[in-house]
Amino acid sequence: MKVPDTEDNAAICICPGCPTYNDCMREASQALYCSRGKTDCSPDQHGCICGECPIKSDYMLSGMYFCINGAEE
Q1: Which end of the chain is more exposed for a tag (fewer CB within 10 A), N or C?
Q2: How many domains is the chain built from?
Q3: pTM for the model
Q4: pLDDT in tens, 33-71
């Protein structure tokens, strides 16, 4: 199911707490990758917390590393 890009979803997004989230992503104020798509910041995989995100369960998403792989539709 497509995740709506809303202020409510952005408010509960846990992307900034992820070990893969890097300075480039932080400086660009990026998050909510499951809705907005992958970053252009070239992150290295240092672990993924998508499985802990309430948005993932609310929208029954199956993917991980949305910041690298892009939004799930």
Answers
A1: C
A2: 1
A3: 0.93
A4: 999 999 999 999 999 999 999 999 999 999 999 999 999
Alpha helix (H) ranges present in 1-73? 7-12, 23-27, 33-36, 54-58, 66-69
Residue 2 maps to a domain: no
Exposure pattern of 27-59 as b/e (b: 16+ CB <10 Å)?
Answer: eeebbbbbbbbebebebeeeebebeebebbeeb
Q: Residue 52, SS3?
A: helix
**Separation CA 44–CA 4 (nearest Å):** 26
Greatest C-alpha distance within the chain: 30
Cβ pair 36, 68 in contact under 8 A: no
Q: Which of 40, 22, 23, 13 is nearest to 3 (CA)?
A: 13
| Strand, coil or helix: 23 | helix
